[in-house]
Amino acid sequence: MAEDLSRPRLDPGRIHLLAPQVAEAIAAGEVIDRPAAAVKELIENSQDAGATRIVVEIEGGGTELIRVGDDGQGMAAGELAAAFQRHATSKLTSIDNLRHLHTFGFRGEALASIAAVARVTAISRAEGAHRAYEIKLAAGEVRGPVATAAPDGTVVAARDLFFNMPARRAFLRSPRTEAAACVRVAQEAALGRPDIAFEVRSGGRVVLRTSGRSSLTAVVRAVFGVEAAQALLAVEGSSGDVGVSGVLGAPRVARLTRQAMVIMVNGRRVQHRGLSAAVEGAYRGLLPTGRYPLAVLNVTCDPALVDVNVHPTKREVRLQNEGRFFDAVQHACWTAL
To answer: Within this chain, do residues 105 and 148 fall inside the same structural domain, yes or no?
Structure first.
């Protein structure tokens, strides 16, 4: 029988599929690029679970330990095991859901990514359940879930972050710098949700505590200090279907960096040059060069106008017709100033 030259023999040669553990570690590195990213994902999971109190503990800048506990709805044994599988989520069922997101998480990557680069222990007890369950994971190995005792809610502890990615760990900054980044993530979460009580401990020391029953001004005081809290201007405005609310700092409490500009879209902390430029533009003529405003603003709109599926960290977003968002933010800031 003549050889069929139109159908070559498919020999992969030097091309091969990555081992699952290698592929997962690489993918995890896109979502969890430093300890602060893990803190952010765990806090957002707690918020999505309906927590009214969130406790964050950090040791060694987050590489030795990150522990985030909450009093949210918790998970049953089967849910706890499923939650650490990649692309497992309770928040999204179809691609159309992306147009109507009301949760921080949606890809089902965060817990799996953390478990791929750290030694993780998670304990959860569903609301009304008779017992809690514990699961342990490290680089693809899973033990549990097994029954244990714990209050309602969930606690996730990640130890030895990047223990299996020495190159990533080598490029982290000092423990002090990484710890500051972790704390800043928690501070921003507290500013976005004054109705949630936050406690943050770094190196055994309490660095942030909010009551969950206070105003945004009180949280600003806890994060930025008394002087800043005494120099706040309320922001409340709308332009069409875009709303803007929050507070601005008077020019006298301007900062040397942009870190005190916290801008959220539908409660989600975002990095968006256009919105930042709108705020800074409102202060034009009021601040000297090299000074930046203190601002905590939440921009609200129909979720369909926001594309949050832009970057693995979900910090970058695209806005439909950015001009109207820019105008709404700048007008609201001008009015307050």
So the answer is: yes
Helix 110-117 × helix 20-31 angle, to 10°: 120
CB-based contacts of 286: which residues, under 8 Å, 6+ apart?
Answer: 251, 337
> pTM of the entire structure?
0.87
* Residue 125 included in any domain: yes
b/e sequence 146-156, b meaning 16+ C-beta within 10 Å: eeeebebbbbb
251-263 burial string, b = 16+ CB within 10 Å, else e?
bebbbeeeebbbb
Q: What is the separation, in whole angstroms, between the first and last Cα of the chain?
A: 86
Cα–Cα dist 291/305, whole Å: 32
pLDDT in tens, 108-127: 678 988 999 999 999 999 99
Show the DSSP H helices in 32-102 as ranges: 35-48, 77-83
Q: Which of 147, 176, 209 is the last residue of a domain?
A: 209
- Over residues 15-53, the pLDDT tens digits come to 655 566 655 555 544 568 999 999 999 999 999 999 999
Question: Cα angle at 83 between 91 and 151, to 5 degrees?
Answer: 100
Query: pLDDT tens for residues 152-176?
Result: 999 999 999 999 989 889 999 999 9
- CB-based contact 258:290 (threshold 8 Å): no
How far is it, in rounded angstroms, from Cα 73 to Cα 128?
9
Establish if 196 belongs to a structural domain. Answer: yes
Over residues 223-233, mean pLDDT:
97
Together in a domain, 161 and 26: yes
Judged against a pLDDT cut of 80, whether residue 282 lies above it is answered with yes
CA dihedral 86→51→54→306, nearest 10 degrees, is 60
Domain that holds residue 202: 20-209
